[in-house]
Design brief:
With about 160 residues, the chain is of the alpha+beta class. The protein is built from three helices and eight strands; from the N terminus they run αββββαββαββ. Strands 1, 2, 3, 4, 5, 6, 7 and 8 form an eight-stranded antiparallel sheet that branches. The relative contact order is 0.22. The protein is globular and about 45 Å long.
């Protein structure tokens, strides 16, 4: 992966904290849902209820599409990420605890408030590893995207 595009992807991941994930329902229809996330390099993590539709969908089919973006005041200022990825439940207690410790860092304005984080037993944590990343940047032209095909990523990539 080109270093400039890698830096752009990491910058966009670090600037945001909300993504829309789309999983496949049993009837084949996509289900899009907004979730918070943290990332370690290019690997993303999100939490959901253990009995949620997302968790059930991903137990059947680990494929996931996602978008990360924000509202732009000008059309030609739109930037964001779109990814095709695989999502796997985090079963390792140490990895799960690391993710839970990272989440409050995405919300620094709440540092003075007591945040009661769920325990790893109360949630399902998913590790999201991208296979294709599209970097959307309208400043380079209407609808401009740079697409990167990822090799198997190390979670710390």
């Amino acid at each position: 992966m080109d270093e400039e595009i890698r830096k752009k992807i990491l910058s966009l991941l670090d600037e945001h904290r909300i993504m829309t994930v789309a999983t496949l329902r049993p009837d084949g229809w996509p289900q899009a849902t907004t979730v918070g996330y943290v990332n370690v390099g290019l690997t993303l993590y999100f939490l959901c209820g253990p009995d949620s539709q997302k968790a059930a969908n991903l137990a059947r089919d680990d494929r996931l599409s996602l978008t990360i973006d924000h509202d732009a005041s000008q059309l030609m200022e739109i930037t964001g990420l779109s990814m095709a990825a695989h999502a796997h439940a985090v079963d390792d207690p140490e990895e799960a605890d690391r993710v839970l410790r990272l989440l409050p860092s995405k919300y620094p304005q709440q540092a003075s408030l007591p945040i009661v984080m769920p325990t790893r037993d109360q949630v399902r944590i998913f590790r999201v590893v991208p296979t294709v990343i599209s970097v959307l940047d309208y400043s380079k032209g209407f609808g401009h995207t740079d697409t990167v095909t990822c090799q198997r990523l190390n979670p710390a990539s």
